[in-house]
Amino acid sequence: MRALIIFSLCGWLAGPAQAADRTPAEPAVGQRAPEFSAVTLDGRRVDLAKLKGKVLLINFFATWCPPCMAEMPRLEKEIWQRYRTDKRFVLLAVGREHGAAELKKFLDGKHFTLPMAPDPKRGIYSKFAASGIPRNYLIDGGGRIVFKSLGYEEKDFASLKAALEKALPAPRAAAHAGIKIVRFDPRASAVQDLLSAALRHTGLKPGLDKTTN
User: Fold this and answer.
1) Whole-prediction pTM value?
2) Do 137 and 148 touch, CB atoms closer than 8 A?
3) pLDDT over 90 at 5, yes or no
4) Which CATH number characterizes residue 130's domain?
5) Of 71, 146, 182, 187, which is the most buried if we count CB atoms within 10 A?
6) Which of helix, strand or coil describes residue 26?
7) How far is CA 107 from CA 163, 168, 180, 204, in A?
């Protein structure tokens, strides 16, 4: 009987690691994500309607959920720490059925820095699903879901990182460094004037140099 009770409470030991079963009501990849608004623990409002052009990763978790706690350190280290300075990216970890005070205590104990928002009455979660955590939804700049996962498995997390890399391609080195590349056009009038002045000064005649070294 004790083994049966433990299995029923955890529910994640069989098959993909998750805290409950799947639900057919969840939005599908390719569909628009449900509109929602959340307030993070530091008081910042995250409103999907105002995130046009940005890529959003929303993670639903609970502190009592073993697979959630297995995934959370990787979200912090492999995703948040990598993309936190990218202005195109927004990450939001939503604590299902957790209040702000409870989440702050959790953060203090675990030393996570990724943005978190409380969802004590499932107001946000219920827009995406009826049951099952952890859940990840990757939403592109147009508000459409481009990736989703339920439960925590290595292959699913690898797929999440790959989808994120595709949604946020690394900028070119020159653009990333703030360097502006200007193409040289010898037909431009200003360039022609400069070349003419140089030829007059040197006494050379325009033409092709056919010599070789």
Assistant:
1) 0.72
2) yes
3) no
4) 3.40.30.10
5) 71
6) coil
7) 27, 27, 42, 74
